[in-house]
Amino acid sequence: MIHAPSLRASLPSSPSRASRAALTALSALALTGALAGCTASEAATPPPGSDVQAAPAAAKGPKVDSETYTIEMKPTGKYKAGQEGSVEVTLVPKAPYHINDKYPIKFKPTEPAPDGIKYPKAVLKKEDGTVDDKKALFKVPFVVSKAGPTKVSGTLYMSVCSEANCIMDKQELEASVDVE
């Protein structure tokens, strides 16, 4: 059980709704951090539905560049209709951050897939990629049934940590590919 005596001491004897919500959010953050492999002193992105707000996610695109990490989805070669190809998804933390080795990092292609695209794997887990403390790389396989420009997309679920805090995040990515 998590106790916050200094916080409780500062609350009025009959706490307001906002005070109770703040205490609940702090407890949820501590529990979320513990489940993700962070210590109790590390901060984490709050769970959905809590009163504490995370930074807004960047717009869907091929690259996300935040203060703590860079994520990129890029084409890896030529693509032919009916043949399997792949795009690379990379996560590179910025100093002093590193990839949280206790977090179940994964990439989920968009579901349902747009017409004409099939993803052979519904989820790429840590063991499907190359992950160390400085970089994560996933090769996302796909098959496009017809020639022309198309978009490959999905969501990367990840966590980066520093000595001061851990950040859990998910980012939607989308890359354009030309299929012959």
Automatic annotation (TrEMBL):
The keyword Signal belongs to this UniProt entry's keyword annotation: yes
Keywords on record: Signal
Domain of life: Bacteria
Region of interest (Disordered), ranges: 41-65
Signal peptide: 1-36
Protein name: Thiol:disulfide interchange protein DsbD N-terminal domain-containing protein
